[in-house]
Amino acid sequence: MLPIRIILHPTDFSENSADAFRLACSLARDYNARLVVLHVAEQPVIVPIDGVTTLPPPLDREQLLNELHCWQAREPGVRGEPRLAEGDPAAEIVRAAAETGCDVIVMGTHGRTGLGRLLLGSVAEQVLRRAPCPVVTVKTPHPQARPATESTSHQAGQT
Protein backbone atom coordinates (compact mmCIF):
# COMPACT_ATOMS: atom_id res chain seq x y z
CA MET A 1 0.00 0.00 0.00
CA LEU A 2 1.13 3.52 -0.82
CA PRO A 3 2.30 5.37 2.30
CA ILE A 4 0.51 8.70 2.57
CA ARG A 5 2.15 11.17 4.94
CA ILE A 6 1.42 14.47 3.19
CA ILE A 7 -1.66 15.33 1.12
CA LEU A 8 -1.84 18.46 -1.02
CA HIS A 9 -5.29 19.89 -1.66
CA PRO A 10 -5.35 22.81 -4.11
CA THR A 11 -8.56 24.84 -3.82
CA ASP A 12 -10.24 27.60 -5.75
CA PHE A 13 -12.96 27.80 -3.07
CA SER A 14 -15.57 26.32 -5.45
CA GLU A 15 -18.11 23.59 -4.67
CA ASN A 16 -16.00 21.12 -6.67
CA SER A 17 -13.04 21.99 -4.45
CA ALA A 18 -15.20 21.49 -1.36
CA ASP A 19 -16.00 17.93 -2.46
CA ALA A 20 -12.32 17.20 -3.04
CA PHE A 21 -11.50 18.81 0.32
CA ARG A 22 -13.84 16.40 2.12
CA LEU A 23 -12.09 13.47 0.43
CA ALA A 24 -8.65 14.90 1.29
CA CYS A 25 -9.73 15.29 4.94
CA SER A 26 -10.95 11.70 5.05
CA LEU A 27 -7.66 10.45 3.64
CA ALA A 28 -5.68 12.62 6.06
CA ARG A 29 -7.69 11.23 8.98
CA ASP A 30 -7.41 7.61 7.81
CA TYR A 31 -3.66 7.82 7.13
CA ASN A 32 -2.84 10.24 9.95
CA ALA A 33 -1.34 12.48 7.27
CA ARG A 34 -0.62 16.19 7.17
CA LEU A 35 -2.99 18.12 4.91
CA VAL A 36 -1.62 21.09 2.97
CA VAL A 37 -4.41 23.33 1.66
CA LEU A 38 -3.19 25.53 -1.19
CA HIS A 39 -4.86 28.42 -2.96
CA VAL A 40 -3.20 29.94 -6.01
CA ALA A 41 -4.20 33.52 -6.79
CA GLU A 42 -3.83 34.10 -10.50
CA GLN A 43 -1.96 37.21 -11.48
CA PRO A 44 -4.34 39.65 -13.16
CA VAL A 45 -3.87 40.48 -16.80
CA ILE A 46 -3.02 44.12 -17.42
CA VAL A 47 -4.90 45.50 -20.42
CA PRO A 48 -4.30 49.06 -21.57
CA ILE A 49 -7.55 50.91 -22.33
CA ASP A 50 -7.39 54.01 -24.53
CA GLY A 51 -3.63 54.13 -24.10
CA VAL A 52 -3.87 54.18 -20.30
CA THR A 53 -2.63 51.24 -18.31
CA THR A 54 -4.20 50.89 -14.91
CA LEU A 55 -2.68 48.52 -12.47
CA PRO A 56 -4.95 45.96 -10.85
CA PRO A 57 -5.56 46.22 -7.12
CA PRO A 58 -2.91 44.46 -5.04
CA LEU A 59 -3.61 40.93 -3.91
CA ASP A 60 -5.44 40.91 -0.58
CA ARG A 61 -3.30 38.20 1.01
CA GLU A 62 -4.95 38.58 4.41
CA GLN A 63 -8.43 37.99 3.00
CA LEU A 64 -7.23 34.93 1.07
CA LEU A 65 -5.47 33.53 4.14
CA ASN A 66 -8.67 34.04 6.16
CA GLU A 67 -10.57 32.14 3.48
CA LEU A 68 -7.98 29.35 3.64
CA HIS A 69 -8.32 29.15 7.42
CA CYS A 70 -12.08 28.67 6.95
CA TRP A 71 -11.25 25.60 4.86
CA GLN A 72 -9.34 23.95 7.67
CA ALA A 73 -10.40 20.43 8.51
CA ARG A 74 -12.99 20.13 11.19
CA GLU A 75 -12.23 16.49 11.79
CA PRO A 76 -10.29 15.55 14.91
CA GLY A 77 -6.77 14.41 14.24
CA VAL A 78 -6.42 16.13 10.86
CA ARG A 79 -3.50 18.54 10.80
CA GLY A 80 -3.99 21.28 8.23
CA GLU A 81 -1.48 23.74 6.84
CA PRO A 82 -2.76 26.67 4.75
CA ARG A 83 -0.57 27.91 1.88
CA LEU A 84 -1.03 30.79 -0.50
CA ALA A 85 0.75 31.20 -3.82
CA GLU A 86 0.45 33.60 -6.73
CA GLY A 87 0.89 32.80 -10.40
CA ASP A 88 -0.15 30.12 -12.86
CA PRO A 89 -2.33 27.65 -10.91
CA ALA A 90 -1.01 24.44 -12.50
CA ALA A 91 2.63 25.49 -12.21
CA GLU A 92 2.21 26.59 -8.59
CA ILE A 93 0.39 23.38 -7.63
CA VAL A 94 3.18 21.28 -9.14
CA ARG A 95 5.77 23.48 -7.41
CA ALA A 96 4.00 23.10 -4.04
CA ALA A 97 3.79 19.34 -4.53
CA ALA A 98 7.55 19.17 -5.04
CA GLU A 99 8.35 21.57 -2.19
CA THR A 100 6.17 19.79 0.35
CA GLY A 101 7.15 16.30 -0.79
CA CYS A 102 3.47 15.38 -0.84
CA ASP A 103 2.50 11.79 -1.50
CA VAL A 104 -0.78 12.58 -3.27
CA ILE A 105 -2.68 15.57 -4.65
CA VAL A 106 -6.45 15.58 -4.16
CA MET A 107 -8.17 18.23 -6.28
CA GLY A 108 -11.52 19.08 -7.76
CA THR A 109 -12.18 19.56 -11.42
CA HIS A 110 -14.88 21.59 -13.05
CA GLY A 111 -15.50 18.81 -15.58
CA ARG A 112 -15.38 21.13 -18.57
CA THR A 113 -15.41 19.44 -21.94
CA GLY A 114 -15.25 20.56 -25.53
CA LEU A 115 -14.80 24.23 -26.31
CA GLY A 116 -14.73 25.36 -22.66
CA ARG A 117 -11.80 23.07 -21.94
CA LEU A 118 -10.08 23.98 -25.17
CA LEU A 119 -10.34 27.72 -24.54
CA LEU A 120 -9.70 27.73 -20.80
CA GLY A 121 -7.41 24.75 -20.55
CA SER A 122 -7.66 22.38 -17.65
CA VAL A 123 -5.65 23.01 -14.53
CA ALA A 124 -6.37 19.45 -13.37
CA GLU A 125 -5.15 18.01 -16.65
CA GLN A 126 -1.94 20.05 -16.53
CA VAL A 127 -1.34 18.95 -12.94
CA LEU A 128 -2.00 15.31 -13.87
CA ARG A 129 0.64 15.52 -16.60
CA ARG A 130 3.31 17.32 -14.56
CA ALA A 131 2.83 16.26 -10.93
CA PRO A 132 5.65 14.40 -9.16
CA CYS A 133 3.11 12.16 -7.36
CA PRO A 134 -0.30 10.51 -7.87
CA VAL A 135 -3.24 12.87 -8.41
CA VAL A 136 -6.82 12.14 -7.40
CA THR A 137 -9.41 14.30 -9.15
CA VAL A 138 -12.96 14.69 -7.89
CA LYS A 139 -15.35 15.65 -10.69
CA THR A 140 -18.77 15.51 -9.10
CA PRO A 141 -20.18 15.77 -5.61
CA HIS A 142 -20.15 12.59 -3.61
CA PRO A 143 -23.61 11.02 -3.79
CA GLN A 144 -25.57 11.28 -0.58
CA ALA A 145 -25.96 7.98 1.18
CA ARG A 146 -29.39 6.54 0.46
CA PRO A 147 -31.38 4.87 3.19
CA ALA A 148 -30.97 1.08 3.21
CA THR A 149 -34.64 0.53 2.40
CA GLU A 150 -34.44 2.70 -0.72
CA SER A 151 -31.32 1.00 -2.09
CA THR A 152 -32.74 -2.44 -1.26
CA SER A 153 -35.99 -1.75 -3.13
CA HIS A 154 -34.05 -0.55 -6.20
CA GLN A 155 -31.84 -3.63 -6.13
CA ALA A 156 -34.89 -5.85 -5.98
CA GLY A 157 -36.29 -4.13 -9.08
CA GLN A 158 -39.02 -2.30 -7.18
CA THR A 159 -39.78 1.36 -7.67
Topology of helices and strands:
Elements: E1 6-10, H1 15-31, E2 34-41, H2 61-70, E3 79-86, H3 89-100, E4 104-108, H4 114-120, H5 123-130, E5 135-138, H6 148-155
Parallel strand pairs: 1-2, 1-4, 2-3, 4-5
Helix pairs in contact: 3-5
CATH architecture annotation? 3-Layer(aba) Sandwich
Count of alpha and pi helical runs: 6
Report how far the terminal alpha carbons are from each other.
41 Å
Largest beta-sheet details: 5 strands, parallel
Helix content: 25-40%
CATH fold label: Rossmann fold
Description:
With 159 residues, the protein is an alpha/beta fold. The chain has a single domain, classed as HUPs (Rossmann fold). It is 39% helix and 19% strand. The chain is built from six helices and five strands, in the order βαβαβαβααβα. The protein has a five-stranded parallel β-sheet, sandwiched between helices. Helix 3 packs parallel to helix 5. It is globular and about 60 Å long. The N and C termini lie far apart (41 Å).
